[in-house]
Amino acid sequence: MQRKNSNEEIRSFLRCGENLTREWKDERLAGQVWDALSLADSDAEAGLEKLTDLADQNSALSAYYLGDAFLFGRYGIPKNYDKAEQWLRKSASLGSVEGRFLLAQFLQGSDKPKRAIEHYEILANKKFSPATYSLAIQYLKGNLLKKDLNKAKHYFEMARQQGHLHSWHWLSFLQRTYGENVICRTKGLINLVLMSVPFIYYRVFRPESDRLRT
């Protein structure tokens, strides 16, 4: 018989970002999800079947891990993008930020990339900084959205306020490179100095943090 895992025990084994940690904490079937993932390591078919049963009980985390498994071909199973999208959509519909973010990243690389933007916008409004950063990058590079440096700066600033360190770096770069005057360019230099210490700290001690996710 598999032992029952408390949320605290589960999280002690996981090194993941702040949001995924929160989703594990909030998941009512966390112990069963953990058992299913552990089982999948040795028996993919049985583990995924258990995850499917849990997802059918509206476990957002189970749906997320199913989508992740089919998207990346984990546990030795073949990739299946249709199934990946199906489970990630279910996870997002059940309220998983992780599910919606991975869905957006999948759509961005698919044949329907502009549909990713609506999911990034939803997550940005929920103050999920990696998604806000993704919007800023799209405005900066002009891939999925029309290039607009003012909007890029707006979203980098929004993500910076949400704690995202790469956004702080990009904001500093834009201020130093495209600043209208000395004051703006000086502000960019100040931001570069201010972000250096937390950036180094998180790169060294918390590389899994959402503050570094892109």
TrEMBL record:
SMART domains according to UniProt: SEL1
InterPro entries per the UniProt record, alphabetical: Sel1-like, Sel1_AlgK, TPR-like_helical_dom_sf
Pfam families documented for this protein: Sel1
Domain of life of the organism encoding this protein: Bacteria
Signal peptide range: none
Name this protein carries in UniProt: Tetratricopeptide repeat protein
Native source species: Pelagerythrobacter marensis
